[in-house]
Structure formats: structure tokens, C-alpha cells
Design goal:
The protein is built from five helices and three strands. By secondary structure, the chain is mainly alpha-helical. It has one domain (7-112): Orthogonal Bundle (Arc Repressor Mutant, subunit A). The chain has a three-stranded antiparallel beta sheet.
Length: 113
């Protein structure tokens, strides 16, 4: 269903959202930073802890990132608890570009307020 959507279309609205504490873009950034910090990949539990999310939130964001081909589950058929999530090539490019955008939006936000 979502496979035909472009990555930028799916995340376009996310980058413009504003919430009181953390917006979706920062949550996705935290998830990707957590996964990127370990070359072997991260389990769902370690992603939850690293990004400070509930299980429901973690499942929602991981599903979205898998559908958008930003991350992949390594050995998902062994056991859901043992599956490790790793960044794809698209995910690695996104992490690199995301840090640039995060910095640019922070400067823009400071100028506004």
C-alpha cells in the first residue's frame, strides 16, 4: 500500500510538524541515531530505550521506516525479539542529510522566536 509513495512525500508533513516536546522528525532522528550507533544493528528494546519511546510508538515508527526502506530487519524470521534493525543505504543518506536539516531548522526556529 505504501510502497508506491515516495520517501519525501511520506516524511514531508513530518518535518513541518510542531509539538510541545518532541516532533515526529526528532523522534525519527533519535531512532535512526540509535540504530546507526551500533554497526551490528539494534533490537526493538534497545531502540525503545535509546529513543525513549513506548512499545506502541516504537512499533508505529519502525513499521513506517521499514515500509519507506530506511531500515530493514536483519533475520526477522528467527524471532521478533532477536531481530536487529539496520539502516539501508537510503537510511544512511537520510541520517547524513537529516543532521543538516535539523541544524538548518534549529537556526530558522531561533530566528522566528
Amino acid at each position: 500500500m505504501y510502497t508506491n509513495l515516495s520517501f519525501s512525500f511520506v516524511f514531508g508533513k513530518i518535518l513541518h510538524s510542531r509539538f510541545k516536546y518532541r516532533d515526529r522528525a526528532n523522534i525519527i532522528g533519535d531512532i535512526l541515531d540509535s540504530i546507526n550507533s551500533d554497526p551490528k544493528g539494534k533490537t526493538k528494546t534497545s531502540i525503545m530505550r535509546g529513543a525513549n519511546l513506548s512499545l506502541e510508538q516504537t512499533n508505529k515508527y519502525l513499521d513506517l521506516l521499514v515500509v519507506c526502506d530506511v531500515i530493514r530487519a536483519a533475520e526477522p524470521l528467527k524471532s521478533q525479539e532477536l531481530a536487529r534493525y539496520k539502516l539501508t543505504q537510503k537510511g544512511l543518506r537520510f541520517v547524513r542529510d537529516f543532521e543538516t536539516w535539523r541544524y538548518a531548522f534549529e537556526i530558522l526556529y531561533r530566528k522566528q522566536y
